[in-house]
Amino acid sequence: MERKICIYCASSNKVASKHFEATDILATELVKHGITAVYGGGSAGLMGRLANTMLAQGGKVVGVLPRFMEKVEWGHKGLTELILVEDMHERKKLLINEVDAVVALPGGCGTLEELMEVITLKRLGKFTKPIIILNLDGFYTPLVELLDKMIEEKFMRPEHRSIWTVVNRPEEILPAIESAPEWSEDKINIAAV
Which EC number(s) does UniProt give (predicted)? Predict the structure, then answer.
């Protein structure tokens, strides 16, 4: 059965080269393992790099792009499949539909919003697959500390730490997916604190 992984990543072309290099490593690993990437459909920044690297190696890439972004030509033109949707809400829903995992690369407010939404959905038992956060050079350390603070101050339970896995290098992403703790729909029973 075809495996699909949703990748949250940024559209900025101005980020440090280390982020592009990490994206290349992940893209190559996905192709090597025959995994299809599902991502936001953009042609710039880490989005474009992910797609271009995978496509150049014969990989499959599915983009999900709101129509208003297509109108300003932000969409990637060479994807395996480009799905146009009406708005950001529909995009986020389709990005995680029937995927085997979610990976968050470093990114901006859009990436953060997507990541927090899927963490919330997993807490509620509406999404049950692994969520991997690439904490390249400590990028997500403040977020992980904030999540720990939420647990410490009883806004979340200690068990909720099992919702996500933090890795420091792109080579660790696929092994982290394989070893992620099981999660089920009945976890809604521990959603409340």
Answer: 3.2.2.n1
